[in-house]
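EI: anyone free to look at a 350-residue chain?
SC: sure, send it
EI:
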Amino acid sequence: MKIAIILRPNDQAPPQEYGSCGRVVAPLVEGLLKKNHDITVYTAKPSDLKCKIVKPEGIITDKNRKKIDIKTHLWASYVSRIFDHIKDIEMSGKGYDIINNHDDPIAFVLGRQLNLGYKMITTLHGSAGDASLSIFPLYPKENFSAVSKSHMLSYKNYNKNMNFLGFVYNSISKNHPFSKNKRNYLFSVSRIQPNKGQKNAIKLAKKGGLDLIIAGNITDKNYFNQEIKPHITKDLSKPDRKEERKNFIWNLGKYQPARDKTEITYVEEVTERERDQIMKHAKASLFLIEREEPFGLTFIEAGIVGTPALAFNRGAVSEIIKPGINGLIGNSIDELVKYVEIIDKISPYD
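SC: here you go
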């Protein structure tokens, strides 16, 4: 089939840093290419995917990246040019069989105006309550896909008339390093904001008597300064500690905890290779979220490197974590503290 995949202008596939929707889209594209489909990816970021790449706005660099906002003309212009390109292809008689829009409300609205009908499906990645996604339920005849069963149901609870064709779990590449060498620290990786639960991770580490490494970019400075920073005992995010940070991450296979205190280390945002390195040696990967998580890519990332997950029972958690096999699920910090003591019983190979 001839398939178009639309990325938001602030997403990159594959991403250079840890985050973004591109982490999901990249292995999706690679898998479709292996099945000999003809793939075109619309993007505003550099990409080394082995398919046709169309950049309707050219490359949006780090210099002007901060200007990308759903209210700005640059975002609207980017999406408008995408559909100008799609319209030209349609008129040539060589149109796409499927147009897969990833989460973008503006692309969704403009796509409707072209009367693409059954050809377009929007894959939702965000929560049903997100303000930027509230436009989707207004169009019950359009095609949608979710990333988990609970994710799909959350939207249907929000608007029962949404036309979900189904849900497809996120994918992951097998190219992540496995390790059975687990050290005495816990790991939390995510954007640093209240609903991601880094405060809960710190509570669990202190109550469980284990060190904690926190990775992620700060998206809520007040939350970081008030709830996280006061507990950090080693801050490796500072520019003058780059070499120390590098040595710390790449020597975690020999990590030894401090005897007299719980060490809380902050390493800032990480690349995928750094994430794998920290995660593969962790005793457990934490997912102590305070929202209904649509999927939780961290779970399968942890699993593929041989590290079990400890998580609150929210959103899709129970669909992905099988207790005793790839992690443990709890409803409170105190419950998970007890699980810290038995997490070693889970085999990295499982």
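EI: The first strand starts at residue 2 and ends at 6.
SC: 👍
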